[in-house]
Amino acid sequence: MEEINNLMQGFAVAMTLPNLAYMFIGVTLGVLIGVLPGLGGANGIAILLPLTFTMNPTSAIIMLSCIYWGALFGGAITSILFNIPGEPWSVATTFDGYPMAQQGRAAQALTAAFTSSFVGALFAVILITFLAPVLAKFALKFGPAEYFAVQLLTFCSFVGMSKEPAAKVIAAMMLGFALAAVGMDTVTGQLRMTYGYPELLKGFDFLIAVIGLFGIGEILLTMEEGLAFKGKSAKLNLRVVLQTWAELPRQWLNFLRSTAVGCWMGITPGGATPASFMSYGMAQRMSKDPASFGKGNIEGVVAPETAAHAAGTSALLPMLTLGIPGSPTAAVLLGGLMIWGLQPGPMLFVEHKDFVWGLIASMYLGNIVGLVVVLTTVPFWAAFLRIPFSVIGPVIVVICAIGAYTVHSSMFDVVMMLVFGVMGYLFKKLKYPLAPLVLALVLGDMAEASFRQSMLLSQGSLSIFWSNPLVGVITGLALLLLLWPLVSAVKGMLMRNNNVKVGSS
Amino acid sequence: MNENSTKTDAESANDPKTRGPEVVVALMLLALGVLVVVDSLRVGIGWADDGPRSGYFPFYIGMALCASSAAILGSTLWHWRSLDEVFAERSQIATVMAMLIPMTIYIVTMLWMGIYVPSALLIGYFMRRHGHFGWRVTASVSLTVPVVFFLVFERWFLVPLPKGPLENLLGL
User: Fold this and answer.
1) Where in chain A are the domains?
2) CB-based contacts of A325, cutoff 8 Å, min separation 6
């Protein structure tokens, strides 16, 4: 029960008055970010990251992770009241949440959504509490070959599990790696791909990419829908909350299934968005009354919210233990850790025990704070959303520009933000996935370093990735996932050939 | 998304298709891939005395980028006629441009006017042009926001933001 002890010490670290204040600030900012289109968990944290450089790392990461929880909670508000998903992972919440609001059951829908988010996150944090130390201990034995194999697995699982065409996943990912390689080679010190431009010496910062791709790109996408917001109003009172809570235990199976889907998709870098869709689909298929889905069934709110929050939380597990983030937001947090001189990975659990357990404890507290904040402040956020987009839109652009500038105090970054923004819009429209791009940009240098170290060990022979059972299994799994689209394409082709006579494809 | 199924075929035939931008993006990725490969070859993709050279890893990245973007390009051109998915309606593109163009001007003016004045102008422009607010509301919001940002960043967090001639004049 060493974990419990550590966790208690963690609570002692996290429970100080300033840290609790940072939690409140973080959650409130997070809900704001989650509610506003164009600002999301990933770019919201990226924008606020420079402001935390002067804080101590524990308080800073507590605040930043609370922004993340807040954003996860906040996404549900716009989905249910406005039928506009504030975050991609709350798209599935609109399917049943908005119909519920139209029927005047907005309060129930919101309570169900917030509670499900909380339950999903809680299970994921419990998972992190007990699994993270084990995984970290296990990963201490990893050499460069094992590290590269795990990174390979991360990237291959994008190819295997994405809904997007494999060529586009690979192209987006390789673009990320290529951008990461620009600038000084960390091993030899040689300049690469700068083509004589001094601005490119320090390479492309992923924070700028995140602000552009997710922030500016999202705003451009929002503009397509026009400038109007039309929403339902909602009042949450204690009676409705308690009533809804009394109904929710009946959904225990739905909760359990959605949590499992979410945790799995979060640890493997499937991410919160596919997890929410998958969980919604499963809930519908297994429901006693599938026809009522999409017409205001509370199960259709519980399933995606639980899964999204479980995925969003468990994405931090591989980030902390292996230094491999499971989502773009986790990647931004990882970037933050590195800026504060904390190298995520198994050594973090040995060298910065206080920090790790403080963070894990803050996940429990942050989610409780988050639940309380959202349940009590819904009317305020709903009112906030009535501010016309002709005011909110340009303000968000200004915030993004400030965020991009403050990373390195460089105007070149602001220009790059615009370039990434246009790219993000085009990529979204053309169905290139953004998550592998960001993750490749973050992990590029690390992946390259571990690859080169492996090659040094083996004198350039790729056989090192099969040299022992552990690394062999990971590499094998990675290759299987990489080739999965091919397998399913062949399967699909065979199926189609069989179906041609029937006439349905 | 917002693909209007109520539109008739003749109307949606006018809207730009996905295939055009698809080709442009694939070509750009291909060009970037070539840039990566060329520069990797320049710094060396083989082994030196102390291990793999700088281009060793990026070379394969560049090759994979070229291969995947070429595959996208090829399949788009191959299926050109049957690809009639609409990229966005003309009116949607117009609203996107209504944001993109002022945003670009905003960032360009930032280069010599600092961040505060262009921010006020951008917010003011949107509120007048798209929000149809009165002058008084427009002025108060578009002036308050930059002032608040100034206080939060420069005074509270001590993070300097770019300033221009006006700020110099005011001695900030």
Assistant:
1) 2-145+205-434
2) A269, A315, A316, A318, A319, A331, A333, A334, A439, A442, A443
